[in-house]
Amino acid sequence: MSVIVIGIDRITVNVGQKFDPENQRHIDKVIKAVAAQHGEGFEIENFEPATGKAVLRRENRSAIASHTGNASIEVPLPTGTTERDGKKRSLAFADAYPGYVMTTFEPHRRRAILSKLEEDIVLTRDALATALRCEPWDIQVSYRPKGGYDFTLPSTYRPSAHDKALTEVTETIIGKPGWYFETDTRERTGSIIPAELPTFKAVYPTPLPKKVEPFNPDKDDHFHIPIGTALPEPGKKHTEQIIDISAHQHVQIGGIAQAGKSTVVNAYITQFLARGAQLAIIDTPDKAVDFAWCKDFVTPGGWGCENIFESATVTKLIEKEKTRRSAIIARNGVQNWTQLPPDQRVMPLLLVIDEVTVLFSMEPVPKTNKDSPQVLLDMKDEAESNNLAKEILQKGINDIAAEMRFAGIFLALSTQVASTDTGLRTKLRSNLGHKVLLGANPTEGNRRLIFNDPEGVPRVPSHIREDPVAARGTGSIEPQGSNPAVFKGYYRSTDEYRKWLISMGIKQNADIRPTVGQVTDVFGDADIDLSSRMDPSPTDVTPSAEAAPTFVSSAGSRAQAQHEALLGD
Question: Quick one: 178 and 256 in the same domain?
């Protein structure tokens, strides 16, 4: 039979010794405060002037779901029974009524209700009671129509205090990993829902829409840069992982070799370029091939990949661009680039720096004296010259990170190791608001060096780490302004990115390296080597347009080669 139960909720409230139970204004004030926190329906049952505490009660009429379809009996309780007698009565009833368990205990009404329950309902009820720190008869459990269980919540339930334990019993005692629970604090109900552990597909292609609007600061979605697919909570759908550059304009991307940094950086670059942003790149000559696919999309003078002197010069050119933009901002009487009127608007400038620790690492300077051989003197001069350029580069990057956000200058910094020992000082890292760490199983040391709150950033779950297909290209992100997450980076071949950007009409440039004159403005007439492994030395004369490089899907980008290696056969 189905039993309708009138349960009694009681709470104790500290109202102070000045409370007057005969004063309706006092009563209404207390009841209103209690209703705001615990819901409507409470009335004052008792007040103790000595302690200043009041007891409030509320009748709770509800159909006890666990009784539905089961045999239930109501048993009277002897006079003088109290709440503390619940365990004793439960054991006594179990002996007296074999096959029945106590599902309701109401000493104030001098009754208990006993019901016949399925064994798994009893086990679930006991596990939930342990997690909720209440007695089993304080909650009711029934089967969900689509599997799993529905249950009621005690009045003492607080998500912050109980949800961690609820997760544990849901995944390890009641169900298995992938099962999850939902609660409704207003209705004081909950459900345990069977589900499979969420995972990733092998590849999530980068969205390449037919039309993309240029950056418009008036549109919030223009600041949402998609980089991959986020791992959902159990029972939820996958969502797009974005970096919100309105929350912070700089991002740090870390990860070991073959972890997928280049694929994420390439997707990031592509989304900026598609919205009309300017691009500058600083990298070592050895790694510059990674960006060959987008080389001619770089803004004039923004290619700092041929030697350390041109790398440093790019930061100085960006500083000049900041000064130019500052004048426009000041002239219009606004605070930053997003507030400029449409006819004065500037586009974001994205500076990508790869292998930053190699670029920052100082070279050893040989010790010499007047009798040292010329070759050693030359080595010393070269090391000192290179280190000067590296110091200029470091200062430039630090200034960009700290001072140029108002001018619409964005920074994406990529590196394998992010420690002070490698030149990445704490101040610089603290100015990079979004933190991304690629790799399914990074070391704790790498997590501490990348994330502001490593304990608050979820790790790639073990079931994904153990699946070589799902694990490829995964990592964790600590984005500014939103919740940390596990995600899998978007992927397209660099050939696809390039063709798409060309189809969008993105401007291609030939004079992308800083000129000799621009380098000389920074270093004076110092005897420095501006030779390049890829291009002839730059000149002040505008070169004829060079032919766009030909790209083959299987070559021309380390990012693509890495991803194909990750995918295997």
Answer: no
Do residues 132 and 271 share a domain? no
Length of the chain: 569
Residue indicated by tokens 């790639």: 460
> Tokens in use for 46?
């008792």
Per-residue pLDDT tens for 19-43? 999 899 999 999 999 888 877 778 8
166 and 253 both lie in a single domain: no
Q: Is the pLDDT of residue 185 over 80?
A: yes
The domain boundary residue, chosen from 132, 160, 195: 195
Domain membership of residue 354 as a residue range: 249-432+492-522
Phi, psi of 293 (to 5 degrees): -65, -30
**66 phi and psi, to 5 degrees?**
-70, -15
Query: What's the CATH number where 330 sits?
Result: 3.40.50.300
Query: Is this prediction's pTM over 0.90?
Result: no
In a domain, 539, yes or no: no
Beta strands in 201-275 (DSSP E): 224-230, 239-244, 250-255
**Total tally of structural domains belonging to the chain:** 2
The backbone torsions φ and ψ at residue 354, rounded to the nearest 5 degrees and listed phi first, read -110, 155
Is residue 267 located within the same domain as residue 160?
A: no
- Give a yes or no: residue 451 inside a domain: no
**b (16+ CB within 10 A) / e for 445-477:** ebbebbbeebeebebbbeebeebeebbbbbbbb
> What is the per-residue pLDDT across 502-529, written as a single tens digit (0 to 9) for each?
999 999 998 899 999 999 999 887 667 6
- 3-state helix, strand, coil split of the chain in percent (to 5) is 40, 20, 40
Token pair for residue 167? Answer: 């997760």
- Please name the residues in contact with 250: beta carbons below 8 A apart, sequence gap of 6 or more: 401, 405, 410, 411, 412, 413, 431, 432, 433, 434
Distance CA 162, CA 496 (A): 49
- According to DSSP, the β-strands at 409-415 and 250-255 are parallel
**What is the rounded radius of gyration, in angstroms, for the C-alpha atoms of the chain?**
33
